[in-house]
Amino acid sequence: MAQKNNGPVIGMAIFIVLSIMFAVFWYMTWSDNQLVYKSLADATQKEQDLNGTVRDALEEIRLLKGLIGVGENTEPGAGDTDEDTANGRTQQILNELAGDGTAALPNLIGALQKESAENNKNSFTATDRMRQLGLKRTENGQLTQSKDEEIEKHKAALAKAEEKRIEQEAIHNEELAQLGEQVDTLRGTTVRLEDELAALRVSTNRQIEDLVDDNNDKRTAIVDLRSRLRQKDDPTFSTADAHIHSVDHNRGLCYIDLGRADGLREGVTFSVYTPGNSGVGRNNTSDIKGKIEVVDILADHRAEARIVKQDLGRPIAGDDPIYSPIFQTGQSLEIAVAGRIALDGLDRSQFRRLVTAAGGRISVQVGDEGDFTDGKGNPVDSNDAPRRISSRTRYLIIADLGDDTENQELEQIYKRIRDNTQKLRNQAENLGIYEIGLSTFLEHIGYSRKQVKWTPESRSSFPGKLPNGSHSDSVNSSFRQSQSSAVISQKYSGGTQSTTSSTGNNSKAFGN
Q: Is the pTM of this model over 0.85?
């Protein structure tokens, strides 16, 4: 195929070379003829030179035929490399056709054959490249077509989505318009309701203020009436916890009808009342004639108690009621304490043990520094402290709230004690819980203070200060130190009057 395509090219090349040679030959001949015509007169003289020139030309023609591969003798001869000759110039052209630095081609046909082979090689390479390019173009065309189809699908989906978006946007705009109308309506309604609410708030606040004032007035009246009733009639809402079953005066013991099943524990103390008392648990303790302390639990409803104190004119006897404000059968009662506890023989820790031993519990207290604490002395938040007084609280016990003093630090403590005590009082008043003085409370639970010891050496100190103080008849009074009288018992007066002798008559309480 390649050989067939190169045939015309080779023929054309040969034709061109021959044409050139013929043209050169014709030109030289024509030149010589011109010289001959012009030098006709000299022809004779130059004939010999022309013959040599012809011979040289013929030789060159012979050599040129050898170069082009059509002569009988193709061996290169003398003068082949001379660039001024046709042969030399032709050989130079053949060397240039070699092109790659190889040895000079022997003739034009070899050069043309080499050029044809190179052209065939290039043509094959170009054909293969064209084939590969066609395959790649086909592959790219298929890929392009696939991508175009995919693009068309995406365009269709996009157009559908855009159409749906426009439709939804139209619906959304319509909904927004409706919502805007609703918002405007609601805004107008809100403004109207706010105006009505403001007017209602003003009216309600006025009613609330009136109700609060009325409630405060009624509360003040109730508290005042309750206080007057307490001071005037001293009512009691308590009942006796149990009764004395029998008494052993020789051993200083008695037996009560409380025991293990009632939750009684050893160490609990009771006050003993007269059978015809006007009520237990009253501020007026004149009906209390003695005090006892449980020393042994004998049965479910029987216990042995030690007579701690009794009125010799009214000795403890059977059927006497007993009472403790912090003991109740099967229950654990609570109390609240406000103020300093600093009695002779009693401090706060001992008071707490006394209450705990009786089965009671201190829910909240105002300590010696005026701070809120629980029954164990742990701090309590000031907002939570009043809420610890509840329906389970039986008494608010008022201890020492402090007196006027020039000591600024102590005065600040007293002020804090009074302020926090008032918070507990307000809560107690709201729940109808009565206040009771510490001294009265101790009388109720049957606590006996330490005796004030007097010696003759202390006679000069009278009138003296009683460490236990005294209390007034009012409920909210605080303890204060009061002076004792200067009257001294004859026993310690140093007088010579003898003691009074017994008449020999025994009290019926101790009779047979």
A: no
